[in-house]
Design goal:
The structure is a single chain. α1 runs antiparallel to α3 (about 60-95) and α3 (about 60-95) runs parallel beside α9. By secondary structure, the protein is mainly alpha-helical. A hairpin with a 3-residue loop joins β1 and β2. The chain starts with a strand and ends with a helix. The chain is built from 14 helices and two strands; from the N terminus they run ββαααααααααααααα. It has helices at about 15-40, 45-55, 60-95, 100-105, 105-120, 125-145, 155-175, 180-190, 200-225, 230-235, 240-265, 270-280, 290-310, 315-340, and strands at about 1-5, 10-15. It has a two-stranded antiparallel ribbon. It has a single domain, classed as Orthogonal Bundle (ABC transporter involved in vitamin B12 uptake, BtuC).
Length: about 350
Amino acid sequence: MSVIRLPGDRSVRVNPRTLAVATGCALLALAAGVLTVGDGDYPMSPAEVLRTIAGAGTPAQDFIVNELRLPRVVTALLVGSALALAGALFQSLVRNPLGSPDILGFTQGAATGALVVVVAGGGSLALSGGAVLGGVLTGVVIYALAWRGGLHGQRLVLIGIGAAAILTGVNGYLLTRAQHMEAARAVLWLTGSLDGRGWDDALPLLAAMAVLVPAVLLCCGRALHVIEMGDDLARGLGIRVERVRLIMLAAAVLLASLAAAAAGPVAFVALVAPQVAKRMTGASGPNLVASMCTGAGLLVAADWAAQRLFGERLLPVGVLTGVLGGGYLVWLLAVERRAGRI
């Protein structure tokens, strides 16, 4: 463990392996993004892509890169990192590797908000707003039901699973009420897709993460490590446990809802990325930064694979992450069962 001195007699403890994993995953995610931007019917080399992003490309290259391909890749990077951070926060909050907005009902709540907009005949902007509002309202309801002198992880999981089941039924009913064209658009969104994503989808999420990520790291980073050792120890060290948990839950719900607004409820990235990051770093605690970098790389790689590995039949990225994440969930349940934790 290394100590980095900051101005004002402050310091930060850094695990070299965690730093190396986070840096490596971030570089791999950016490299995958550059390769993805250069791939397609109009192929470009990585040097041409970087030159075009820097403003030195031809008009054709500038249009293809900056207007068509780069917004999709940036959206994938942001959505992957937002979902991974939300998943890491949820897993730390409930102290369970199965903690994820997919399982706890928050993704289904965002889908309900979006489907209400679809049935009402709203446009894409209203759909995104409905997804955020639905996710936030679901978070408020689950928090209120799970609160009993404190926020206990097991209660949150059980209530979240129940809410997910109820909202799944509501979403099925809303789909039957939509017109055929609107229902087809809603099904594509519910699958999780990056098709046609532009700067209007990426920039709101970027602005939100510019606020939420520093707030989470500054307010909850050290406190999360201590809380995982036990509430009594954390309170003895002066940490306001319930306040930290409320900030964690609010940030995780907002991140998951905003990610769903940008690309739909992409499945299992929030579940898988924090666990992959934790196994690579070998460190205890939530591994927030490493999880973000891992999630960004996973979603960019999955989007490239969904576009290129199945011939002319382009898959929504949520199909591929759902298949891979479902397999990972089965494996994780088997591991937890053998360990006697479930």
